[in-house]
Design a protein that fits this description.
It contains 4 helices and no strands. The protein is an all-alpha fold. The chain starts with 19 loop residues before the first helix and ends in an 8-residue tail after the last helix.
Amino acid sequence: MLLRVKKQDVQVDSWVRPEPLDYCLAVWKDWMASTGQRNLGARIMGGLVGETDGHGQDLHEAQHSHDMQVAAATDAMIDSLDRIHVWAIYASCRIATAWRFPNADLVTTAADARDQLVIKLKKNECTRNLF
Protein backbone atom coordinates (compact mmCIF):
# COMPACT_ATOMS: atom_id res chain seq x y z
CA MET A 1 0.00 0.00 0.00
CA LEU A 2 1.32 3.42 -0.94
CA LEU A 3 1.16 6.31 1.48
CA ARG A 4 1.00 9.92 0.46
CA VAL A 5 3.60 12.15 2.01
CA LYS A 6 3.82 15.90 1.86
CA LYS A 7 6.59 17.22 -0.31
CA GLN A 8 8.24 19.14 2.53
CA ASP A 9 8.38 15.97 4.67
CA VAL A 10 10.53 14.13 2.13
CA GLN A 11 14.23 14.46 2.67
CA VAL A 12 16.51 13.74 -0.24
CA ASP A 13 20.24 13.58 0.16
CA SER A 14 21.85 15.58 -2.57
CA TRP A 15 24.64 14.03 -4.57
CA VAL A 16 28.06 15.11 -3.41
CA ARG A 17 30.83 15.07 -5.99
CA PRO A 18 33.77 12.98 -4.77
CA GLU A 19 37.18 14.53 -4.43
CA PRO A 20 39.06 14.03 -7.73
CA LEU A 21 42.12 12.45 -6.12
CA ASP A 22 39.98 10.08 -4.04
CA TYR A 23 38.05 9.06 -7.18
CA CYS A 24 41.28 8.46 -9.13
CA LEU A 25 42.76 6.38 -6.31
CA ALA A 26 39.53 4.38 -5.87
CA VAL A 27 39.35 3.34 -9.53
CA TRP A 28 43.12 2.73 -9.48
CA LYS A 29 42.74 0.36 -6.50
CA ASP A 30 39.96 -1.53 -8.32
CA TRP A 31 42.14 -1.66 -11.44
CA MET A 32 45.10 -2.97 -9.44
CA ALA A 33 42.91 -5.68 -7.91
CA SER A 34 41.62 -6.84 -11.31
CA THR A 35 44.67 -6.50 -13.58
CA GLY A 36 44.78 -10.26 -14.13
CA GLN A 37 41.17 -10.39 -15.30
CA ARG A 38 41.19 -8.03 -18.25
CA ASN A 39 38.99 -8.87 -21.20
CA LEU A 40 41.80 -8.41 -23.74
CA GLY A 41 39.76 -6.00 -25.80
CA ALA A 42 36.70 -8.25 -26.17
CA ARG A 43 33.58 -6.10 -26.10
CA ILE A 44 29.94 -6.97 -25.70
CA MET A 45 27.84 -6.19 -28.74
CA GLY A 46 25.71 -3.38 -27.39
CA GLY A 47 22.66 -3.86 -29.59
CA LEU A 48 22.09 -7.44 -28.52
CA VAL A 49 22.47 -7.56 -24.74
CA GLY A 50 22.78 -5.27 -21.77
CA GLU A 51 21.27 -1.93 -20.95
CA THR A 52 22.01 -0.07 -24.13
CA ASP A 53 20.90 3.37 -25.18
CA GLY A 54 19.30 2.02 -28.35
CA HIS A 55 22.29 2.86 -30.54
CA GLY A 56 24.53 -0.03 -29.56
CA GLN A 57 26.26 1.82 -26.69
CA ASP A 58 26.12 0.15 -23.30
CA LEU A 59 26.30 2.96 -20.76
CA HIS A 60 27.74 0.73 -18.02
CA GLU A 61 30.44 -0.48 -20.38
CA ALA A 62 31.28 3.09 -21.38
CA GLN A 63 31.58 4.15 -17.72
CA HIS A 64 33.74 1.12 -16.95
CA SER A 65 35.97 1.92 -19.92
CA HIS A 66 36.35 5.51 -18.73
CA ASP A 67 37.17 4.35 -15.21
CA MET A 68 39.83 1.98 -16.53
CA GLN A 69 41.40 4.79 -18.58
CA VAL A 70 41.50 7.00 -15.48
CA ALA A 71 42.99 4.11 -13.49
CA ALA A 72 45.70 3.45 -16.08
CA ALA A 73 46.57 7.16 -16.21
CA THR A 74 46.69 7.27 -12.40
CA ASP A 75 48.97 4.23 -12.38
CA ALA A 76 51.33 5.92 -14.84
CA MET A 77 51.40 9.10 -12.77
CA ILE A 78 52.06 7.14 -9.57
CA ASP A 79 54.92 5.29 -11.25
CA SER A 80 56.47 8.61 -12.29
CA LEU A 81 56.79 9.74 -8.66
CA ASP A 82 59.89 9.23 -6.51
CA ARG A 83 60.19 5.71 -5.09
CA ILE A 84 59.44 6.85 -1.53
CA HIS A 85 56.27 8.61 -2.76
CA VAL A 86 55.22 5.56 -4.78
CA TRP A 87 55.62 3.41 -1.70
CA ALA A 88 53.70 5.94 0.39
CA ILE A 89 50.75 5.85 -2.04
CA TYR A 90 50.79 2.06 -2.06
CA ALA A 91 50.95 1.92 1.74
CA SER A 92 48.23 4.54 2.25
CA CYS A 93 45.92 2.71 -0.19
CA ARG A 94 46.66 -0.58 1.62
CA ILE A 95 48.20 -2.23 -1.42
CA ALA A 96 51.60 -2.56 0.25
CA THR A 97 51.66 -3.49 3.90
CA ALA A 98 55.22 -2.85 5.00
CA TRP A 99 56.78 0.61 5.20
CA ARG A 100 60.31 0.19 3.87
CA PHE A 101 61.70 3.61 4.75
CA PRO A 102 62.48 3.59 8.48
CA ASN A 103 63.92 7.13 8.46
CA ALA A 104 60.75 8.68 6.96
CA ASP A 105 57.34 9.18 8.53
CA LEU A 106 54.57 7.50 6.54
CA VAL A 107 51.92 10.12 7.33
CA THR A 108 53.95 13.14 6.20
CA THR A 109 55.41 11.29 3.22
CA ALA A 110 51.94 10.14 2.11
CA ALA A 111 50.61 13.71 2.34
CA ASP A 112 53.53 14.96 0.26
CA ALA A 113 53.02 12.12 -2.22
CA ARG A 114 49.33 12.99 -2.60
CA ASP A 115 50.25 16.62 -3.27
CA GLN A 116 52.76 15.59 -5.93
CA LEU A 117 50.23 13.19 -7.46
CA VAL A 118 47.56 15.91 -7.69
CA ILE A 119 49.99 18.12 -9.61
CA LYS A 120 50.71 15.31 -12.08
CA LEU A 121 47.06 14.30 -12.46
CA LYS A 122 46.07 17.91 -13.21
CA LYS A 123 48.53 17.88 -16.11
CA ASN A 124 47.48 14.47 -17.46
CA GLU A 125 45.19 14.55 -20.48
CA CYS A 126 42.93 11.77 -19.19
CA THR A 127 42.44 13.06 -15.64
CA ARG A 128 42.67 16.85 -15.83
CA ASN A 129 38.92 17.25 -16.46
CA LEU A 130 38.22 15.78 -13.04
CA PHE A 131 40.02 18.60 -11.23
